[in-house]
Amino acid sequence: MSYSQQALDQLERGQLDQFKKAYASALRHDDDDTLYSLAEELYSLGFLNQSKRIYEKLLKRYPEEDDLRVNLADILIDDDQNDEALTLLNEVSPDSPAYVRSLMVAADLYQTQELFEVSEQKLLEALKLAPDEPAIQFALAELYFVMREFKKAIPLYLGLIKQGIPEFSSVNLVERIGVAYANAGRFEQAIGYLKQIHSGDMTPDVKFETAFTYLQLKDYQPAVKLFNELKETDPQYTSLYPYLGQALVAENRLDDALKALQEGLGVDQYNQKLWSYAADIAARVGNESLTETYLKKGHALDPEDLDMVIKLSNLYVKQHRFQDNVAFLTDYVGQDNLDPQLYWNLAVSYAQLEQYEKADRYYQAAVPYFMDQADFLKPAVYFFREMGERDQMMKVLKAYVKVVPDDAEMADMLETEEENDF
C-alpha cells in the first residue's frame, strides 16, 4: 500500500496524527501519479493546504503541465489569493489542452468579484471552443441567473435538460427554469415547471417563487397554501407576508390578511412596507385607530416616504382632524417633491380652519393636477366663488361639468354664469 493510500485510510478513520506522518512520507517516497491522485482526493475532502503543497511540488517538476497550474489556481482562489491565481491562469496559453478549464476557473473568480461582464466573456470564449461541454453551458446559465439575465439563462438550462441532464452540481434545473421564467414575468411557463417539484423538496426561495407565481396567475388557493407552508417552516422569511396578505385579500379574507401581516410585523418590526400594507388592510376592515397606529409606525421608520405621508394625511382629512393635518405636514411644505395630493389636503384643511388665504394658495397649487377629478373640482368651485375669484371658478366649473355632465345643479350654474357674461 502506498503512503498516499495509508494517508487517506487514516483520514477516513479520523487518525489525524498518523495521517500527517503518512502524508509526509508520501511527499518523499510516492511516485508523481500517485501524488497527483492524492492531491485530487485531498482537495475534494477540503484539505486545501495539503493539496496545494503537492501541486506546487509537481509544478516545479513539470512546469509544462498546465493542468497543475489550473488546479493550483483553483485552490488559491478558495484561499482568497486571487492575484496569484490569475498569474497562474494567465500563463496557460490558448493552444493548451487546459485552456478551456483555465477560462472557467477565471470566470468563477471574476464572478466572485462581481465582475460579471468579464466572467461572461471568459465563459463565452470557453463555449466557443467547447460548444458541447455541459459544464460550460451550466456555468454560463448560472452566471446569467445571478446577473438576473433570465432570458439568456433559460435556453441554456433547457439545452441541458434536452441532453438528459435534469440536475447539475446538485442544482435542480427544473427548479432553475421555473424560477427563471417567473422572474422573467412568464408565469404560465414558470408554473409548468415549478408545479413538477414536490412541495417538500422545495427550498424556501423556490417555494416563495412558486407561491408568487400562483399569485400572479390569480390562482390564490395554492398561493395561500404555499405561503403558509413557508411561514410555518421559515417564519423569518419576511418577504412572504405582504404577498400572503395580498392573496388572502383577493379571496376576501380580510381578517386573515390582517392577521398574516401582524405576524409578519412580529418577525420584522423594521419593515416599513409591512406597516404600510397592514394599515391598508386595517382601513379596509374599518379599524381607523389601528390604521393610524400602523401608519405612524411606518412613517417613523422612513419619514421621507411620501406614500406613507399621503396616507396619514388622507386619514386626518377623512376624520376632520384638520389642525392635526396642518401640523403634520408642516415639515413637508416647501419641499420640491411635494405630492399634489398634499396641496389638496392642505387646501381643504385650511379652508375648514377658516384660514382662507392659505387655503387659496394650496387650491391654486392643486388645480393643475386634478382637473379630471370631480371630488376635487366641485368643492373648489364653491371655494373660488366664495373667494371672489371668478376666472378660476369658471375654469374649474367647466372642467367639472365636462367630467360630470349629468350634475344638473352644476350645469345650471355654468349656464347661468355664462349668460351673465353677455
UniProtKB/TrEMBL annotation:
It comes from the Bacteria. InterPro entries: CellSynth/LPSAsmb/PSIAsmb, TPR-like_helical_dom_sf, TPR_rpt. TPR repeats lie at residues 204-237, 238-271, 340-373. The keyword Magnesium does not apply. Pfam families: TPR_16, TPR_19, TPR_6, TPR_8. Keywords: Repeat, TPR repeat. This is Uncharacterized protein. It comes from Secundilactobacillus pentosiphilus.
